[in-house]
Design goal:
By secondary structure, the chain is α/β, with parallel strands linked by helices. The protein is built from ten helices and 14 strands. The strands form three sheets. Strands 7, 8, 9, 10, 11, 12, 13 and 14 form an eight-stranded mixed β-sheet that branches. Strands 2-1-5-6 form a four-stranded parallel β-sheet, with helices on both faces. It has a two-stranded antiparallel ribbon with strand order 3-4. The longest helix has 15 residues, at 127-141.
Length: 308
């Protein structure tokens, strides 16, 4: 008798991308799992306890209010989870604001599922951790992750092989604007692969950064990739910013790139390489922005590239 594929519920967008790339039998997803296309009809198992359509500063304030009261930012629909009866649940224990945390998933599993469900919690901080997560998910669902890892390595090597610039461009990465938060985790590694250097001391995790430190960083390029925000949402956030950002400013689809620890981090390295060289934008993925009074609008035409 043929072995059936495990029924998988993913509560983390990056894990969903990994699982789908490995051919998983995905039966449930989080409200944020939006890639690859074609999985929109899969039942949604989680929902936020705040209005994520509000401006970034309001979202941040709402999250802090929930956390200060010891409340979860997300809810798991126990009725849907019980109906789906997954064999494997993919979640994370890296960030309480990014997705449903491990402790909440464990409590939901005890309440709604049989004892033998496998919970795989991802917590990557480096590119090597992301790569290892391919294999962790693969082992849980009975799939070989080697081809996915090879493709990931090859894509990163292709960016490493691009002609280098001298001096290396100084790049500042921001994953939130109000309050400003400097990109951490794997961002410094992506810069190294792309041939750039970080304009501020890299940190292990994404952390708040003072405006004085932003001004003093003097980057050639500032990459803005608001966590969980599309390009449209990113443009709206930039319009609310009361002051200009330093350097040439690049807006990235932060919902898809830079801060989503899955296979598309290799695409993120390519975006950083292009932006740090001031090359033409890739519409739909990233774009150049420029100051226009107190707010920011799309510039439409990039500056000439750096000379190698």
């Amino acid at each position: 008798m043929a072995k059936t594929s495990p029924r998988v519920v993913s509560l983390l967008p990056a894990a969903t991308e990994i699982a789908v790339a490995l051919g998983a039998n995905l039966v449930g997803r989080s409200h944020e799992c939006d890639f690859p296309a074609g999985h929109e009809r899969i039942p949604v198992v989680s929902r936020p306890r705040l209005d994520i359509s509000r401006p970034g500063p309001e979202i941040h304030a709402s999250m802090q209010a929930l956390l200060s009261r010891g409340l979860a930012i997300y809810e798991i629909d126990l009725e849907v989870l019980s109906r789906l009866q997954p064999d494997v649940i993919l979640t994370q224990d890296q960030c309480a604001v990014c997705a449903v945390p491990l402790s909440q998933v464990e409590a939901a599993a005890r309440a709604a599922l049989a004892a033998n469900v496998t919970i795989v919690s991802l917590s990557p901080l480096r590119l090597a951790d992301v790569r290892e997560d391919f294999f962790r998910v693969g082992r849980a669902i009975g799939r070989d992750a080697s081809p996915l890892a090879r493709d990931f390595d090859s894509a990163l090597d292709a960016v490493r092989g691009l002609p280098r610039i001298s001096p290396r461009p100084r790049v500042l990465g921001l994953e939130w604007l109000d309050p400003p938060m400097a990109a951490g985790n794997w961002f410094a590694e992506l810069l190294e692969i792309a041939g750039a250097i970080y304009a501020v001391p890299p940190t292990e995790r994404t952390e708040r950064i003072a405006w004085e430190a932003i001004d003093a960083s003097r980057p050639d390029v500032t990459i803005v990739a608001p966590c969980g925000f599309s390009l449209d949402r990113g443009r709206e956030e930039l319009k609310l910013l009361p002051r200009p950002l330093p350097g040439r400013v690049c807006l990235v689809d932060g919902n898809a790139y830079i801060n989503r620890p899955g296979p598309r981090l290799a695409d993120s390295a390519r975006i950083i390489a292009s932006a740090s060289r001031l090359q033409p934008a890739d519409p739909g993925h990233w774009e150049w922005v420029s100051p226009a009074g107190p707010s920011w609008t799309s510039s439409g035409s990039p500056a000439p590239p750096f000379r190698a």
